[in-house]
Amino acid sequence: MLLDTHYPRLLGIADSHSLTQESEHHSERNRTQYETRWFTERNTEDQLIARYRTWFNRGLDAPWRQQLGWEKYTPSGELQVREVRYARGDAPAASGSSRIN
Known about the structure:
Blueprint: H1 7-11, E1 18-29, E2 32-42, E3 48-59, E4 65-73, E5 79-88
Antiparallel strand pairs: 1-2, 2-3, 3-4, 4-5
């Protein structure tokens, strides 16, 4: 899926590792909704493997553009990987939910 928000799958987390959401922030400005989350990945010995920042932006006006991105950081804070995906969505559902799946 283009805008897959199943985070362990999106970030490629090993089955033996854990992914914990540390924070979440929502805002809206200029007719766009913004959602940012921070996660930590730990191995079976509870050692910090990586930190991740994810974001999802959705336009509230046609053509309802969407952006999903994520960054992977080392435990010392060095950026390792960045990926950004773009799509044009359908009109928002009546519920107003920002979830894709």
